[in-house]
Amino acid sequence: MAHTLGELAALLGGKLQGPPDLVIQGIASLDRATPRDITFIAQKRYARLAAQSRAAAFIVGPDQAQLERPLIIVGHPYLAYARIAALFAPPRNRWPGVSHLAFLGQEVELGQEVSIAPLVFIGDGVRLGDRVTIMPGCVLGDRVQIGGDSFLHPNVTILERCTVGQRVIVHSGAVIGADGFGFVPGKEGHQKIPQLGTVVIEDDVEIGANCAIDRGALGETRVGRGVKMDNLVHLAHNVVVGDNSLLVAQVGVAGSTKIGKGVALGGQVGLVGHIELGDGVQVGAQSGVNRSVPSGQTVSGYPARPHQEWVQIMGHLPKLPEMYKRLKELEKKLTELAAKLPEEAGE
Q1: Are residues 136 and 181 in the same domain?
Q2: In a domain, 94, yes or no
Q3: What is the pLDDT, as a whole number, of residue 81?
Q4: Rounded-to-5 percentages of helix, strand, coil across the chain
Q5: Same-domain check for residues 197 and 288
Q6: What is the spatial distance between Cα 257 and Cα 242, in angstroms, rounded to a whole number?
Q7: d(Cα 299, Cα 271) in Å, to the nearest integer?
Q8: Stated pTM of the model
Q9: Active site residue 274
Q10: Full domain range(s) for residue 187
């Protein structure tokens, strides 16, 4: 689908510098763009590549407005790129209607234009909103509810009584509503604690491939509106994730931990159970958080501590062998001096 440069500028609310009737047929990176594509410069260090790019036009910030190429000037080039990429993205394939190779249980309620592909299993009492798409191999347990315009990629499992909001995307292999890890050690082994709760996924959430979101032991595990989860994230029972938080790959959150709004957890971050992270907290990759963190703080390391303190510690770490050597030398000199003191006192 082609658009003129003027149409794209109007969509972005940006300032146009160039011919409004210039036809754009796609979007690409600086080094791969063709004379039919628009590209973008989100960071100053890439501006030097503009001269070699074959792109028809550029999305830039005000600091690159001097480029002598067709431009759309916006305040946030990376966000503008995301909006234009969505415009050119091909539509997702949807099965037309309900496949006769899908199994639907009793009292299933389907909204308008629902798409259910072959080899889907849907339990009793499931409710699907308008334009929900269920791809092959998905399993929906009894009384699952899914809001309108949500999309389940192949082989997603949502177990009984879980609720998914509107415009939610769940990628392949994700499991929502498995039992939480609850056992009581005893003389004869580990007694399982029945997991009686559920999972609530609010609107506009995206859940990556092979994520695992456990149901509450009692009550619910909840993922707030606008949360984005990368692949291989695990939320244990009764975890609460606040609106618009970001959880990067391989994050693990132990039971009953509460994560505030707008929190960002870097890759492989681990959180112990029963703690709270305030709104806007940022946690560096591979950090281990073993206590609550107040709102607005940035922490890193294991155990996690204020980020600048951790950076300082890491800066000293390579110097430890030399510092240790010098310390041993100082200890030796002190021992020698201490041995001489009685001799000098006797004189």
Answers
A1: yes
A2: no
A3: 96
A4: 20, 30, 50
A5: yes
A6: 11
A7: 12
A8: 0.90
A9: no
A10: 103-308
CATH number at residue 223: 2.160.10.10
User: Of the listed 100, 153, 237, 316, which one is catalytic?
Assistant: 237
CATH of the domain at 54: 3.40.1390.10
> Which of 164-178, 245-259, 286-300, 322-336 comes out lowest in average pLDDT?
322-336
Q: Report pLDDT for 343.
A: 66
Q: Name 221's bridge partners.
A: 199
Average pLDDT for 179-207: 96
DSSP label of 181: -
Q: What Cα–Cα distance (Å) separates residue 324 from each residue in 23, 309, 312, 336?
A: 66, 21, 18, 19
Residues 56 and 197 in one domain: no
Give me the helices (H) in 93-244, please. Answer: none
Claim to verify: residue 137 and residue 265 sit in the same structural domain = yes
Give pLDDT, residue 46. 85
Structural domains counted in the chain:
2
CB burial readout 30-55, b (16+ within 10 A) else e = beebeeebbbbbbeeebbeebeebeb
Residues 6+ apart with CB under 8 A from 151: 92, 132, 133, 135, 168, 169, 170
CA distance linking residue 116 with residue 135, whole number of Å: 6
With cut-offs at 50, 70 and 90, classify the pLDDT of residue 344: low
